[in-house]
Fold these 2 entries.
Entry 1:
Amino acid sequence: MVETKIITVDKNRPEKDKIKKAAEIIRKGGLVAFPTETVYGLGGNALDEDAAKKIYAAKGRPQDNPLIVHISDILQLEKLVKEIPERAKLLMDKFWPGPLTIIFNKSEVVPFGTTAGLDTVAIRMPSHAVALELIKEAGVPIAAPSANISGKPSPVCAEDVAEDLAGRIDMILDGGKVMVGVESTVLDLSEKVPIILRPGGVTREQLEEVLGRVELDPGLAPGEKPRSPGQKYRHYAPKAPMTLVEGSIDNQVKVINELAEKLEAEGLKVGIMATAQTRHLYTRGHIISAGDRTAPLTISSNIFSILRKFDRMEVDQILAEGISKEGIGLAVMNRLYKAAGYNVLKV
Ligand code: TXA
Ligand code: MG
């Protein structure tokens, strides 16, 4: 056990002295959790293999799941990669800083401990003042997976991080709740048609505006083999079994009400993940609205915290509404499929 310091920082203008302390921990090989625009990350020096080992140990992360390297300045990129493809330059111009992770061929500087033995490295520049200041002050790129115990919902606030990692890491920088709430989009540019390895904060539609056609890795479908090592694991799993209900809104509500009635008759505690448009239509269960269907960012920023809330409420079964896969909805549905272990009911 280590003592985990929790330090509140101003998320727009982080205090210099606090960032300095956190950066010093990173430089000395320690671990600091920090906010990004997507989710909280668990940071360590990306160039230090021992720091990478500590990250895997603290999260209980499978050894073959590579880490994303975070930078604060384009100049850092050149040292970390063999070459910067033209298409990457276009994307960096448009989406960095922001929730887009690009896969590059790695240079010698990046240890295999960070990339889980791969010759490629995933890199992103987050758009969050605390993350950027921390990387700048540390003077090294920061490797950071989401700051949760492997397999659990990703952390969207410092309390989520503390719930999972207090006693295992040196510091948590508390910058309040994140904006996007689902992780960055991971993009592979090695094929003729770029491939989304993980849908995320930058949408497929946005990428296609810059690149033309972009594919979603067919390996993300249940039972297939994903191209990205981390995508094969069950993720974001709440404690209770979860059923995701997809279909017209009317059918979703009808079926969820019927299921809830049946489960409650069996004496079970039921959690319902609804939306602003439907919450008043439920007559049973513990109802939480994820957000407004016409403003999907309100939903993406809430799904992980609702799953954690249902854990704390100790519900026996979760019934969740599906939403449209347009825009960020694609990333939301990818996370909900996984949280449900692909237990999907089409109605
Ligand atoms: O938004 C985010 O990306 C957050 C914040 C903290 O930046 N980080 C994050 O990291 O989600 P993590 O470790 O939870 O997910 C990293 C994903 C995994 O699915 C992993 O397999 C993939 O990125 N990845 C990393 N390096 C890769 C590589 N060289 N090739 C293919 N996939 C890679
Ligand atoms: Mg993760």
Entry 2:
Amino acid sequence: MSCRNGASLKERIENKKKIVVKVGTSSITYDNGKLNLRFIDQLARQICDLMNRGIQVILVTSGAIGVGVPVLGFREKPAYLPYKQAAAAVGQGFLMNVYERIFHEYGRHVGQVLLTKGDSLNPKRYMYARGMMMALLELGVLPIINENDAVAADEIKIGDNDTLSAIVASIADADLLVILSDVDGLYDKNPSKYDDAKLLSEIPSFSRSLFQMAEGPGTARGTGGMYTKLLAAEICVHSGIDMIIAKSTVPSVLYRLMDGEAIGTFFRSEDVHPQMKKRKMIIGADLKGKLFVDEGCRDAVLHKGSSILPVGVTGADGDFQDGDIISVFCGDEELARGITHFSRKDVEKICGMHTSEMNAALGYEAPYDTVIHRDNLFVLH
Ligand code: ADP
């Protein structure tokens, strides 16, 4: 079996523990807009087998509008926005129903997640979206993600599922994004126009000049084309996430990719320290307040990578709400910054307390046992 760049790349792929798989409309539907059940069945079988192997998988799927269009009796995608949204609303339910039934046959449940741009930009929504996705993965459920096309107006839209899949990979801390498309990978020019276009099997370091090779979608049903796939690659490589573009119809494509076989185009990511990933989100954001912690908590945060538990918190300052970004101090020393799960008012009620005492002090059931979870904590030292 061939593999790119010898054993190191094979090892790189074989070590992947959390992957995002994105499928486009052109892969999951036929030209007439009806679902390609044979493809979906093969996809489900491979994804469930990877999950059984211990790999966490997230599926990003397009297709809601495309599937809803024939269900509503339209001959083509309507231009009138409310009709398009209606097609998305009907198509999304239809699509999820099919996914649920097919994945269930292989022993897995699926969870529908509909995202919009705000879920990646707003720290509070980012934190909740991330927490929910992590919970689904931990519970062995396959998150199936789409943009919320039924409500999303242009200004709150990410706009294409290639970019969405890269954002999801970064929110979920995935280590690989696989974009399955109707094309073998990135060519040096558009292969549907030029017979002599050459497939590029590896992009060792991403450069913006690659965009010159990319054009729009290959089919009337596709939306992004190669351009948005390169936008996704750019997000991934700078976030330390490897990415592959491969043709969805290659037999056993996911098995073979995860065995390290050289299929499609591999975008090698930059080495990004996990702390640096959080840095992007947390540094530069408006700080809404301060959290003061004791020496024991300082030690746990700086040397053990721990979350901040109420028991180590001594006080708070500023007018912050849950989901805001705050700084963490021990005396005069700023230790870290992170997204708080509790408002200042609530932090003051629970500081110094053990987890078991929190509910009584708050007067409601605490949704989290940490004030700042280590996933959302950027340590400054
Ligand atoms: P999907 O629906 O699977 O996301 P798209 O149709 O949106 O797929 O995008 C893939 C298409 O992009 C290809 O079929 C091809 O026609 C077009 N394309 C444009 N430029 C390139 C390029 N340099 N390399 C490969 N494909 C390209």
